[in-house]
Amino acid sequence: MNHRTSHRRLTAAVLTAAAVTGTLLTAPAAVAAPPAAPVTALPEATQDVALFPKAGKLVSAGKTGFLYETGVAEAPFAWRGYDGTVTPLAGGGYVGSTGSDMIAQDGPDDTLVLRDMGSDAEPVVLKGAGTLLGVSGSTLVMYDADGAYLLDKVGDQDVRRDVTGLPAGPKSYRMPNGAEAFTVTSGDATFHLVDVASAKVVATATADNASVDAIGGSKTHLAWYDWTRNEDRTHFHLLDVATGGSRIVEGAHAASAPVFSKGWMAHTTFPGRPGERIPLALRSLADDRVQYVLDRADEVRAGADGSFLVKGVLAREEGVYRVTVGADGVPVTELVASSGRLPDFAVVSQEVPRTFTLGEPDDHEVLSWTFTRPAFGTLTLVHTATGREEVRHAFSLTPKLDFYLGNRFVFGKGVYSGAYTWKLTAAERFDVGPGIERTGAFTIDRPTAARDHDENGVADVLVRDTDGTLKAYDTWQMYRTRVPGTSSLEPTVLHTGWNTYTLMASPSDRTIVGRDRAGVLWMHKGTGQKLLPRTKVGGGWQVYNKITGGSDLNGDGRGDLLATDTSGVLWFYASTGDTARPFKPRVKIGGGWQVYNLLTAPGHVAGTTSGDLLARDRDGVLWLYLGKGDGTFAARTRIGGGWQQFTHLAPFGDKNGDRRVDLYAIGPATGRYYATSGKVVAPFKTPETLDRQPALIGPGTVF
Q1: Which terminus in the chain has less CB density within 10 A, N or C?
Q2: Who contacts 108 (Cβ-Cβ below 8 Å, separation ≥6)?
Q3: What gap in Å lies between CA 348 and CA 263, rounded to an integer?
Q4: Are the C-beta atoms of 529 and 474 separated by less than 8 Å?
Q5: Model's pTM, two decimal places?
Q6: Phi, psi of 213 (to 5 degrees)
Q7: Tens digits of per-residue pLDDT, 233-259?
C-alpha cells in the first residue's frame, strides 16, 4: 500500500441539544484542521476515543467540518468540525454542499433554510416547491413535477432557474458529490449531466443496464457502471465533458458510484470474494494512476481543495478519515473522527457435533462458529475413506457463520456415511487482520436406503463401463442438470474387472450378483463405498439369458431375483438374507417370456406394496406385471409403445418422495426420468429428459 498516514488527537465539545425548533442550536467555530506530521501507526491514546457514532453516515464534507446522520432518532443530524466540536441540528431533511460549509434543510410548507456552518451568518430562508436534492455553493438544487430547477436568493427575491435540455417523461435525480453538477436519469438508463452554473445539460450518455446509484459526475466528467456489460464490475465508462469522448477504464472493481474531487476520482472497491478487504481506490483523471488507501472504505464524499472524506478503517481504527493527494501523487490519510478500535478477530464459540444422522430427505445439520467480528469463512470437508473433498463458503453481516450440511449435493451428490475431517479458515468480513484456522472431525451415520450402493442416502444406477469398471451413479445428481461446483457426473467406483460377467443384477440392497462365462453365479456384498470379495452362489446359470432383481415379490422385506431361460420360462428366486445360501430353490412362474427382450424389477410402481415387473416386447411395447405378494403376478397391463428407443431400463429410486420407485430409461443418445403415478393404468407420468447421464452408457451395461 503506497500512502502516508497522519493523525491528530481530537477533542469534542459535547453539546446538549435544546428542544427541536427547526433552527441551528449552536454555531461552530470556523477552525480548519491543519495537517500533522506523518506517523506510521495510530497513537495508543486515540484507540479508546469515540467521537463519531458507529451508526453515523456521512452526508457532505466542507471546509471546516462535515454534515452527518447520527443514527439517533431524537437528533438525526449533526455538524462536526474538524476541530472536534459537534453541533446537533434540529429536525431533519438536511443536505450539504461539496467542499463548502453550506447546508440546507427542507422544512414544512415549501420552506428551505440555507446555513453557512463555517461562519456566524444568519440563516437564509427561501421558498421552493418540490424536493431538495442538494446544495451547490449558495444555490439549491430542486426538482418538482415540472422538472429540475435551481433556486437562489438574490436580494430579497427567490429566483428560480429551470434546467434546460432534459427530455420529457419520468426521471430520477442524483447529486453525486460534485457541487457544480448533478445527474438526471431518464428512460432506459440514459444519463444527463447538468451544469449548475448554466442550468443546462452538458453531457448525455446511455448504458444498456445501469441504476442511478451507479452514476458519478462532476463539472468535467461523467462516470457509470454498465451492469449488462460489466457483471463483475471490473471496468467502468468515463466521459470527458470538454471533449465529448468516452472511454472504458479497466481494472476498477467498484462497490460504489465514483466520486470526483479536483483531478481525482475515488470509489470503494468491490472485493473478489466476501472476505477480502474493500480499500478506497483513487484514480488520477490525468494519467489513470491508481492509489489505494485505508483497509476498509464504507462511504466516500468529495471534500474541499481536492480532498475526500471517507468513513472506514485503518489499522483497526474505525472512524472518519480525510484523504488528500499531495503534489507528488501520494495520498495522505488523516483521522478526523474516531469510532473506536475494532476488537481483535477471534473465535467466541463453536458448535460442531461429533456424530449426527442424516436420514430423512429434509434432514440437515448446522455447523456454526461465532466470532468477535462479522466473518467470511471457508469450510473444507474430507471424507476419510474416499478422500473426496467438499469446499463450502459462508459470510454474514453478523459475527456468526453457519454452514448447512444436508442430505444432498455435497460433493455434487448425496452425503457419504462415515468419518470426516474438517478445516475452517476464517477472516474478518471486509477488514484486514490475521485469519483463523480450526480443524476437527465428525461422523455421519446414514440409515440404509433402497438401492443405495455407496452409503450416501441416495438410490444409485449401476453402470458397467466397457473397460469392466462398475460404478454407482447418484440418481439425484443425474436428475439435477446443474450441480454447484461440478461440470460432469462424479460416480463412485465400486469395483473393477466386471468384464468377466455376462449377466448382472442387484436383487437387494448392497447386493450385486454376476454370472460368469462358465455359468457360475457370484454375489458381491457392499460396505462403505466398495464391494467385499465375492462369494459363490452356484453353477448352472448358463441356462438363463436375462436376470433382474430388486422387487420384493413375496412380501418378506427382501428384494428377490428373476431369471428367464432360453426356452422362455420365467423363474423366481426368493432371497434368504443368508450370504452362505442367498436364494431359496427356484419357483417356476410361467412360460412365454421369450417375447420380451428387456426386463426390469423396479419395486412397487403401481400403488401396491408388492414388487412389480416391467417387460418390453420385440415391438417396443412396455407391459406392467403387478405383483401379488406371493411370488406371482397379475395379468399384464399395457403401458404403451415406442420403448424400443431405449436400451436399458433402471430403477431410479424415489426421487419425488412418494415412496414409489421411479424409472430411468436410457437410449443411445438420451435419458428420461419417469415418475410413477401409483396407478395400474398409466403408471408413469410425463417423462423428463435428463441432460446429465453417465458417459459410455450406450456400449455399457446399466441395471
Answers
A1: N
A2: none
A3: 46
A4: no
A5: 0.67
A6: -75, -10
A7: 567 888 999 999 988 877 666 667 889
